Every structure is written in C-alpha cells, then in structure tokens.
Amino acid sequence: MELDNGSGEDFLYIHREMIAEVNHILAEVGDPQHPHVQGWVTIPAPDNPDFPVPPAYELPGDPGATQGLLDVKAQAGYDQIHAVETQVTDPAVLRQITLCRLGAAVEFFIHNALHMRWSAQMPEYRPGGDAFNVDPKWDDSAYNWLGDTYSSHVNPLFWNLHGWVDARIDDWMAANDLQGPVPWSFDPPWSGPEGGHGHGHHPVARLALRARPGSAEADALQSSLSAMEATVEDLKRAGVREPARFPVHYGEL
C-alpha cells in the first residue's frame, strides 16, 4: 500500500467531481427534500440511532472477507476508523501533509472500511470479474450492496459517506489558509476520454438531461459516447478486470 504515489489526490479529485455532478443534477430536479448531497459531519459512533450498523454476515466462499466484515463491524473496527478520522480532521496534522497523502489515508483507512461497515446482507451477491458484461438482473435498485462497486451508489448511505470524504478537502484547504480552486498537482489530476474531462466530470451526464436529436448538444453527446466506448474497448483489449471489493486496511498517517 503506497500513500505517496499520487493516487490519493486522484481519489479526492474524482469524489469532488462526482459530488459536484450529483449536486448539479439535484438542482435541476428541484426536489426540496434532496437539495444537495448531505455528508456525515462526523462518522457515526456505534450507538448512533440514526445510522445503525447492520449485523455482520457471511460472504459465501470467502472466509477472509467474512472475517474482515466481523472485524470492521466490531467496536475495535470503529476505534481504528475514529483514530484516523481524528487525524485527518486535525488542522495541525493537515498542515503537515499533502492532498495526496490525505486522500490515500482517507481511502485506505476510512473510506473502504465505511463501505463494508455499513454494508448489509443481500439475498445473493453479484459475481465479480468482467466489468463489461454484467447481467441486467443486477440493475434492480433493490441490489444496493455497499460492498460492490457496481451497486454501492444506489444505497442512500453512499452519499452520507462520500459527502464526508468530500469535506476533507475543505478542511485541508482551511488548515492551510487556502481559498479558491483546489491546488491539484495536475490539471485535471484524472483524465478521461480525449484527456479533457475527469471521472465524474465528463459532460455526458449533463448533456443527457437536455440533448435532443439534431442539436449541437446531441452531437456533443454522441462524440463523448464514442470516446467513452473507444476507451472501454481499449480496456477490454488490455484485459482490465473490475475493481476488487473494498479492501480494509488499518494504519496511521
């Protein structure tokens, strides 16, 4: 596990872009009950009645992951998470670390653990492997397992969790007396098709809300889709597999 290879900054960047994109869509929808993504202010403690931790359960055929679930749902698991949360919200600590190291610590020591801590038992689990050939039955919104990268965003707690992640950027900026745009090391840190847009920042989501056949936006949408499809084909040829379940690590900054 590497905390200083740049992936931590990518992690923060893609989540900031994702939250911004979702907030843009929510603003267009105009539902007063869901005006924007509302993250946890602090990670809920075990006795928090609003966010109870689902019981531990068995993952069929995966004793290692089952033991990991037992560990992360236990009091000791929360204590580990809380210890790192205390660090990544401490201005004195944030003044001493880069965005890169902050993002890596949040991802490996907190984010992944929260996915599994608040995951609940499902009647069955999607088999992993080929990210490009997923059975449509897993598109049912009832399958909202937080332990699956394919379905976790359907779970409402996903947005509490990732709103908390996004707020860590603001804490880091404030601790370092920075205002305005986030000083990413690269612009943008994460490039998508044709190098112009990041994960979560691609214009397809916005264009799809408004595009009509024959319009300039429809043409732009088709161009973006073509670029994305070409990228998918490149990944297929490279033999890229889908991400593993959220691995839980314990450690310190």
Describe the structure.
There is one protein chain. The radius of gyration is 19 Å and the shape is globular. Helix 3 packs antiparallel against helix 5 (99-117). The longest helix has 23 residues, at 7-29. 47% of the residues lie in helices and 0% in strands. It has eight helices and no strands. The chain is an all-alpha fold and 253 residues long.
Structure summarized in a few sentences:
Helix content is 47%, strand content 0%. It has 253 residues and is mainly α.
The count of β-strands is: 0
Question: Residue-averaged pLDDT, rounded?
Answer: 85
Radius of gyration: 19 Å
Q: Enumerate how many helices there are, as a single number.
A: 8
Run of helices and strands: HHHHHHHH
Name the structural class. mainly alpha
User: In percent, how helical is the residue content?
Assistant: 40-55%
Major beta sheet summary: none
Distance between the termini: 12 Å
The low-confidence parts are: 191-203
Shape: globular
Q: Hey, roughly how much beta strand do the residues contain?
A: under 5%
Give the topology, please.
Layout: H1 7-29, H2 63-73, H3 75-88, H4 91-94, H5 99-117, H6 157-175, H7 204-210, H8 216-237
Helix pairs in contact: 1-5, 1-6, 3-5, 5-6, 7-8
Give keywords.
single chain; 253 residues; mainly alpha; globular
